[in-house]
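Protocol step 4 of 5: obtain the predicted structure for the target chain.
Materials: sequence only (see below). No template structures provided, no constraints applied. The aim of this step is simply to have a reference model before the mutagenesis design in step 5. Sequence pasted as it appears in the construct record:
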Amino acid sequence: MTWPFRSTYGELHRPIAGRDVPGHDADGLRLRWLGTAGHVVETGTQTFLIDPYLSRPGLLDVAAKPLVPSLGKCLPWLPKKVDAIFCGHSHFDHILDAPMLAKHFGAQLFGSASTLAFARAEGVPEELLIEVPPAGLREKIGESEVAFVPSKHGKLLFGQVPIPGEVLAPPKIPGRFFHYKMGGAFGIWLSTPKGALYHNGSADLVDAEVEPFEADVVLLGLAGRYATPRYIERVLRALGPRLVVPTHHDFFFTPMERGVQLLPGVQMPAFVRDVNDIAPRANIVAPTYADNIVVPTGEAHEAFCESYWPS
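Step 4 output (C-alpha cells):
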C-alpha cells in the first residue's frame, strides 16, 4: 500500500554532524525514533525503550486479523541491550511488541495494570513487571530516574478517546486491535546524568501534573493535537525544553524500511511554526527512522543527527 502523505520536513530540521555542527562534542544523550510513539534512549551506560512498536502490520491486517508481534521485524532496529521498557498507555500501537521485547532482553516493563495484563498473557516473568498505579509512579533505575505522570489521551475520533477502558485480567492472545484498551495515560519523564526528557505520547495533558517537571528534551506526540486547546503551548511552557522532537505523526501501517510517511492532517509546517512562536530558543529536530539524535549534555538546543542503519 502506498500512502500519499510522505514526509516533507526535509533537511532544515535534521542538522547533520560534521556539517551544521562541525567539531561539536558528540558525547551526550542519544535518542532514536522507532516510528509511531516509540523511542530508544541511550545514556552510554543504560538503554531504555519507550512505547516500542515495530511489528507494524498493515491497515487491512489490523482491521481484520489478530495482532501478532514479530521479533524479526523488531530486532534489526533495536540495540543489543535494553534495561527497561516504558509504556505510556495500552493501545496496540504502544504495547503490542513490549511484552515480547521484555522477555527477549530480560528488561523491566513499566506500565499500567492493562499493560501488565497483556504482559502476563505473553508470559513475561513477574519479577520484570512494574505496575504504574493511576496516580503515577516515580522510581530510580540505577543512575537514572523515571516518573509516570498522570495524563490524558487525545480525542482522535469524533471528539472521543479511542478504545477507552481497562484490561484487568490476562486476555486471550493474539488479540484484535479493539482488545487493547487505553488503560490510563501517562506522560513519561526520564532524568539521566546526561539530561532529562519528557515523552508525551498522546496529544493531551493534565497541566497540574506536568508543571512540577522540567525537561531538556520533549518528545511531543502530534496525532490528534488539534482536539486539545493550546496543546503545544501548554506542554512547552510547562516543561521549558531546549529541544523539541515530534513523535506519533507517521502512518504506522507500513514497514519501517519504506521510510517516514505522515499521518493525514499532521501539518508539519504548522507544528514548526507553533514551536518557533511559543519557544523561540528551542531547537526542533524531526528525525527519520535512520537517524540517531545526539543531545550534547547541557546544550540540548545544539542537538544533531548521526546516521543509524539497522543491522
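Step 4 remarks: The two ends are 25 Å apart (CA to CA). The chain has one domain: 11-293.
Proceed to step 5.
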